[in-house]
Amino acid sequence: MPFYQKRGKIPNKRHIQFRDSKQNLYWEELISRKGFSGIYSNIYHTHPPTAIEVIGTLNKIEHTALDEAHRHRHLQTSKLNVNGDIVSSRVPLFFNSDVTIYKSHVTKSMSSLYRNGCADEVLFIHSGSGSFKSNFGNISIKPGDYLVIPRGIIWHIEINEDMKVLVIESYESIETPARYRNEFGQLLEHSPFSERDIITPEFVEPADDKAVEVEVKLRASIQTYSYQHHPFDLVGWDGYYFPYVFNINDFMPITGKIHQPPPVHQTFQTSGFVICSFVPRMFDYHPEAIPAPYAHSNIDSDEVIYYVDGEFMSRKGIEKESITYHPMGLPHGPQPGKIEESIGAKEANEFAVMIDTFKPLNLAKQCIDIDDNDYPYSWANK
Predict the structure, then answer these.
(1) pLDDT over threshold 80, residue 2
(2) Tens of pLDDT along 135-153?
């Protein structure tokens, strides 16, 4: 995120001597993007962050694509029979070279620490609650939260109650939309959210535990390491690089006299896809407005919509935790009757998360048992 934060104790200059009360040097670590040219944070450890005792197992990860018809799909993800922690319960649904999209049904807290070494992650908390604990501090998480975890952050989640989570793993950095930022990175006055809505970590005292295991996610595997000292041993940090939370309920929708296109709902961007938030909002106020969206041909993007709650204005037969997938090359739009139904309506009452990718997505084999085979025919008049 492009705004400065500071926690705990730090020296008055970077890269100078910084000692504890016994004159022992603290260990400085720089976490930075684009080598030394992007955003960064300096963090200060009581022990060396590099001290590894054991290099553990390498567990391979393979995503297998379904070789099936090119068509619209409706995935009923509530039917996934899976449980575990936020990492072990992940079921891949879609993937390409930019992103992997998972659903996770979280039934237990994590027993080890986790670091994604190759991707940023966005965890959308559909239901349940818990505590996100990281080397930067702690954040309570609740329904509606987008938890944004830049790569390289070390973390784990302790749950208070079972959670349903949509997981978006991005191989490029997750950012706020460029058109909503000024030249200094500040969110603009007309942005649908501001820095006031963003929750950053609460600092905690440094951990003093010994020998802890960290799972490091790579593109096609997870490598385990046992570290001599707990990586949550920070006495302080500052910079622009940290995990944070933004809640979908704090998104202030932009409305208009006629139907506004999906970019007004954009919440995050990467070079390979965007994430949009559909929230309750006033409908269009032109006297002849049609609030339901017009039919749209996806020429340059695949569209994934995860349905969270409410009345889904342009769809029938959709339930909470459903995902619709509209691939590039095919038109999609409101189903029969939904356009007429929308005329005269004053407001939308829906929550949904949309992911538009700029490259075709592969459908993971795990989707085969939750796919609604009749969905592609739902536009036909019967």
Answers:
(1) no
(2) 999 999 999 999 999 999 9
CA separation for the pair 120, 305 (Å, rounded): 20
Predicted confidence (pLDDT) per residue in 158-207, tens digit: 999 999 999 999 999 999 999 999 999 999 999 999 999 999 999 999 99
Residue 157 carries which side chain, given as an amino acid letter?
Answer: I
| Residue in this structure with the two tokens 């622009």, named with its chain if needed | 240
Instruction: Note the pLDDT of residue 1.
Output: 65
Place of tokens 């068509």: 71
Q: What value does the mean pLDDT of the chain take?
A: 95
**What secondary structure, in 3-state letters, does the chain show?**
CCCCEEEECCCCCCCCCCECCCCCECEEEEEECCCCCCCEEEEEECCCCCCEEEEEEEEECCCCECCCCCCCEEEEHHHCCCCCCCCCCEEEEEECCCEEEEEEEECCCCCCEEEECCCEEEEEEEEEEEEEEECCEEEEECCCEEEEECCCCEEEEEEEEEEEEEEEEECCCCECCHHHECCCCCECCCCCCCHHHCECCECCCCCCCEEEEEEEECCCEEEEEEEEECCCCEEEEEECCCCEEEEHHHCCCCCCCCCCCHHHHEEEECCCEEEEEECCEECCCCCCCCCCCCCEECCCCEEEEEEEEECCCCCCCCCCCEEEEECCCCEECCCCCHHHHHCCCCEECEEEEEEEECCCCEEEHHHHHHECCCHHHCCCCC
Inter-CA distances, 379 with 306, 325, 369, Å: 19, 14, 23
Domains of the chain: 52-67+81-231+242-247 (2.60.120.10), 251-377 (2.60.120.10)
Burial bucket for residue 311 (CB in 10 Å: 0-12, 13-18, 19+)? exposed
Query: How confident is the model at residue 382, as a pLDDT?
Result: 62
> Closest Cα to residue 350, out of 306, 313, 295?
313
